[in-house]
Amino acid sequence: MFEGTERRLRKFLKKRRLAPAGKGRIAKGYSSEIYLVKNPKGGKFALKIEKENSPRREMCEKEVANLLLANKYGIGPKLADYDINARIILMEFIEGKTFSKWLLDGKKAPNKKQLLKVISDLLLQAKIMDEIGLDHGQLAGKGANIIVKHNLRPVIIDFEKASQKRRCHNLNQLNSFLFRNPNSEIARKVKEITSNKELC
């Protein structure tokens, strides 16, 4: 058992000269919490801290190893810092919308050219992860683990449950998510936009 979440967080922030940004905590999960923090120059980071009662053993070590491998190929948020003893990971903060919100935005949905650009980039990232033996495992569902930045660069996030031991299904999973699921609102929208003869 390690120190309480708040105490570890305060110590890490003080040592790294970081401070909470905005509302502070931006996400809360079963085994961890994510905070938005900033450095003295205003640079923003996502800080992930494991809860003291987390049942997931070696969660922090695994995610760091997965991010280090993904980052070698330009995939995932950039790993900025980490403290295994404090169970903290500091990553690049990705500003944008989840893939589902970006795609299904009724007021400002992407056009065909924009969507094809994002999908092409995503499929390439999935192919690379398959080739390097890194299975994300959570690329389907609601697309919550894919953030589309304002420059249309999709970033795959949350490598906590990724594995370098499982058989890789990244490309197959993304293809199902984007094109093959007949009951998916995502797949229906992708088909609707890409079937349009106009690019813009």
How would you describe this structure to a colleague?
- Helix content is 36%, strand content 22%.
- It has 200 residues and is an alpha+beta fold.
- It folds into 2 domains: 5-92, Phosphorylase Kinase, domain 1, CATH 3.30.200; 96-194, Orthogonal Bundle (Transferase(Phosphotransferase), domain 1), CATH 1.10.510.
- It has a 5-stranded antiparallel sheet, with helices on both faces. It has a 3-stranded antiparallel sheet with strand order 6-7-8.
CATH architectural type of the largest domain: Orthogonal Bundle
Tally of separate domains: 2
Q: What share of residues is helical?
A: 25-40%
Assembly type of the shown chains?
single chain
| Strand order in the sheet with the most strands | 1-2-3-5-4
Shape: globular
Low-pLDDT stretches are: none
Q: What's the number of extended β-strand segments?
A: 8
Largest beta-sheet details:
5 strands, antiparallel
- The CATH C-level class name of the largest domain: Mainly Alpha
Please state roughly what percent of the residues sit in beta strands, choosing from under 5%, 5-15%, 15-25%, 25-35%, 35-45% or over 45%.
15-25%
> Count of helical segments?
6
Superfamily (CATH H level) name of the largest domain: Transferase(Phosphotransferase) domain 1
